[in-house]
């Protein structure tokens, strides 16, 4: 499954957020290096369509799509020099499909800031610089190997050129995802700054209602997406029943929890979308890549569905809701038979036909 790696300086609230993500008891301690082992947390993608589907099909339960997060131990200034958590950190982060950087915006004087003061812009620069340095080292090592392989005619000159272009951009202090270099040929290097990024600002609850401040912070990371939450409140929200949680959110002027936002924006950042299936047992959202074909989408349920794919009967969610039932959608010509070439649309409601 695709996962998002959570990074950030020590004491910015990663463990607190992660506790909320897993609703378990990962140690949230007020000192640097509290999080050493990577952990995985899963959060459901909120999808109000499932409840509507369940009503139409009389489904017993709802199964939303989910996004996984890996809590990766904190980076410190100089981590890429091997001073901090170097190698294990790099190994973990390389496996992540996207990176969520938690940035401290809360001001609590009782929580020590590793650099002495709360400054989101400077914190992001510290982290991003470490990631850039790590990539520079990776590319430098690879270039030595590439030059040899080029001499032995094992690779094309374009591979070396791509690596050199990446090296130049990194030397300029750029994140590779902010350049238009086509990195396909050196994908095997797993460069960190080539991954999609998103930013999670952990702010005081009053800031959540301060539109001007939020716009300022969002501008710091654009075009990457920013999420704003109060990790302490998130960890309280997961302990509450839905009615009380909604009340707490309303009291701080929010209509969606930070975790729901994180799932939604994380999903987009990973380039994913969902399609839906429903029956008397369950109404379910399935995760696919944006642009997936019908057979690939069927493969999300079972590889045999992809191998034996024949076609799918597809009704758009909007059409299904409007007509009120599959039978009525068919009668009105809203149910389409789609074949192998069909590109899935978000919210397609599907019944697959396949050979086993
Ligand atoms: P990590 O090192 O990034 O994993 O940070 P932790 O989650 O362990 O948080 C460090 C300290 O900051 C802990 O004492 C938390 O209780 C506190 N903390 C985390 N998030 C918030 C927040 O949103 N507001 C306040 N006031 N304190 C927080």
UniProtKB/TrEMBL annotation:
It comes from the Bacteria. The keyword Nucleotide-binding applies. One of its GO terms (molecular function) is ATP hydrolysis activity. SUPFAM superfamilies: P-loop containing nucleoside triphosphate hydrolases, TGS-like. The keyword Chaperone does not apply. ATP binds at residues 11-16. Residues 271-354 form the TGS domain. Residues 2-249 form the OBG-type G domain. PROSITE patterns: G_OBG (PS51710), TGS (PS51880). One of its GO terms (cellular component) is cytoplasm. Its cofactor is Mg(2+). It holds the Pfam family YchF-GTPase_C. Keywords: ATP-binding, Magnesium, Metal-binding, Nucleotide-binding. ATPase that binds to both the 70S ribosome and the 50S ribosomal subunit in a nucleotide-independent manner. Belongs to the TRAFAC class OBG-HflX-like GTPase superfamily. OBG GTPase family. YchF/OLA1 subfamily. This is Ribosome-binding ATPase YchF. It comes from Leucobacter exalbidus.
């Amino acid at each position: 499954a695709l996962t998002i790696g959570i990074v950030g300086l020590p004491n910015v609230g990663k463990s607190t957020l992660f506790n909320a993500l897993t609703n378990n008891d990962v140690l949230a301690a007020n000192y640097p290096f509290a999080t050493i082992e990577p952990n995985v947390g899963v959060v459901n993608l909120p999808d109000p369509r499932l409840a509507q589907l369940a009503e139409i099909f009389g489904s017993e339960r709802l199964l939303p799509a989910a996004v996984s997060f890996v809590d990766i131990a904190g980076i410190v200034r100089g981590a890429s020099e091997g001073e901090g958590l170097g190698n294990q950190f790099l190994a973990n982060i390389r496996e992540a499909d996207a990176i969520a950087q938690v940035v401290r915006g809360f001001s609590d004087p009782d929580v020590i800031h590793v650099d002495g003061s709360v400054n989101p812009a400077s914190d992001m620069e510290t982290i991003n610089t470490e990631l850039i340095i790590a990539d520079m080292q990776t590319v430098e090592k690879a270039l030595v190997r590439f030059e040899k392989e080029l001499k032995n005619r094992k690779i094309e000159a374009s591979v070396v050129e791509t690596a050199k272009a990446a090296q130049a951009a990194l030397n300029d202090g750029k994140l590779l995802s902010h350049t238009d270099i086509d990195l396909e040929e050196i994908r095997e290097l797993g460069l960190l700054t080539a991954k999609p990024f998103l930013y999670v600002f952990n702010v005081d609850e009053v800031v959540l209602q301060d539109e001007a401040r939020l716009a300022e912070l969002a501008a710091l990371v654009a075009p990457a997406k920013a999420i704003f939450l109060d990790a302490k409140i998130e960890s309280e929200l997961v302990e509450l029943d839905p009615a009380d949680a909604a009340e707490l959110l309303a009291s701080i002027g929010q209509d969606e929890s930070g975790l729901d936002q994180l799932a939604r924006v994380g999903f987009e950042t990973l380039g994913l979308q969902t399609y839906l299936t429903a029956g008397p047992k369950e109404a379910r959202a399935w995760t696919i890549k944006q642009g997936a074909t019908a057979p690939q989408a069927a493969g999300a349920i079972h590889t045999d569905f992809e191998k034996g794919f024949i076609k799918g009967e597809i009704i758009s969610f909007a059409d299904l809701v409007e007509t009120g039932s599959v039978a009525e959608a068919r009668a009105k010509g809203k149910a389409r038979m789609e074949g192998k070439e069909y590109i899935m649309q978000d919210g397609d409601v599907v019944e697959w036909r396949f050979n086993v």
